[in-house]
Amino acid sequence: MKYLLELLSLLLAVPLFAAGALRIADASRAGVPALNALALRLALRNSVAVSIDKVTPNEAAARLAAGRADLIVLEHGNLPAERPRVCRLFAAEVLGLYVNAANGMPSVELRDLKLLLTSTRPNWRPFYPRKETDIHRYGLKERAAGYRLAESLLGAETLAQDIFAVGSTEQVMLLAGNDPEALGFGVLSSGMPAGVKVLEVNGVPPTRGNIASGKYLMCWRYYVLGGASLSQAAKIFLEEMKTASFAKELESSGFFPL
């Protein structure tokens, strides 16, 4: 999908091309909404005419190599073996697994997680022998930030039908804080209410360093890549991606800024 911000700028009587044009090929899994918000802001404030095309990873790489894109966005699994001069990790979609603070289970094994979220009425005992009660699972409704993140990371077509779905990760955490048998999942949050803790996966906690390095496995990491010669518009865009306002936009749409 192409975002014709030039047209919007014309309608608002903003002079175009004062800082040039910028072509971005976005090959991320489902798009990064914060990039669109940043493009709009630059179109209005800096007179940068930005177009964002949603393309395949191969098409994005081909456009960058041919000079038909100034910047491209790729997930970690699609990075080229030979990295261009600009290759910056900027965000991740991170699955957070929330349990009640009274739950003594510190970590879940990746091999067990798919079973925990796809089986019908699982019990704690096979996964944490000190508990012998049914697991109460809480997930996200359609259109909530992070909806279907668990499925995509686990390679599962659907999750169990008896998972109680709510409208946000904040609601998932509140339920976990009030239910000793809870296993909630949503996007990783930097702030958790009292009575809630986040599980490790394979003994690895979801810290910033572990997410950036890929040691924490339940995440999609996103990179922005650029060629050897950056236009002024591309330089402005990359600098804006370092700002607190861009980080806030990432967080509001369920992404973890890096």
Q: How would you characterize this protein structure?
A:
- The protein is α/β, with parallel strands linked by helices and 258 residues long.
- The protein folds into 2 domains: 112 residues, D-Maltodextrin-Binding Protein, domain 2; 120 residues, D-Maltodextrin-Binding Protein, domain 2.
- It contains 9 helices and 12 strands.
- The strands form 2 sheets. Strands 1, 2, 3, 4, 6, 7, 8, 9, 11 and 12 form a 10-stranded mixed sheet that branches.
CATH architecture of the largest domain: 3-Layer(aba) Sandwich
The shape, in one word, is elongated
Uncertain segments are: 1-18
Strand content: 15-25%
CATH class of the largest domain: Alpha Beta
Quickly count the helices: 9
**Radius of gyration from the CA trace?**
21 Å
Largest sheet: 10 strands, mixed
User: Count of DSSP E strands?
Assistant: 12
> What is the domain total for the residues?
2
Q: How would you name the CATH homologous superfamily of the largest domain?
A: Periplasmic binding protein-like II
Find the structural class using helix and strand composition. alpha/beta
State the order of secondary-structure elements, H for helix, E for strand: HEHEHEEEHEHEHEEEHEHHE
Which fold name is given in CATH as the topology of the largest domain? D-Maltodextrin-Binding Protein, domain 2
What does the average pLDDT come to?
Answer: 90
Oligomer: single chain
First-last Cα distance: 26 Å
Helix content: 25-40%
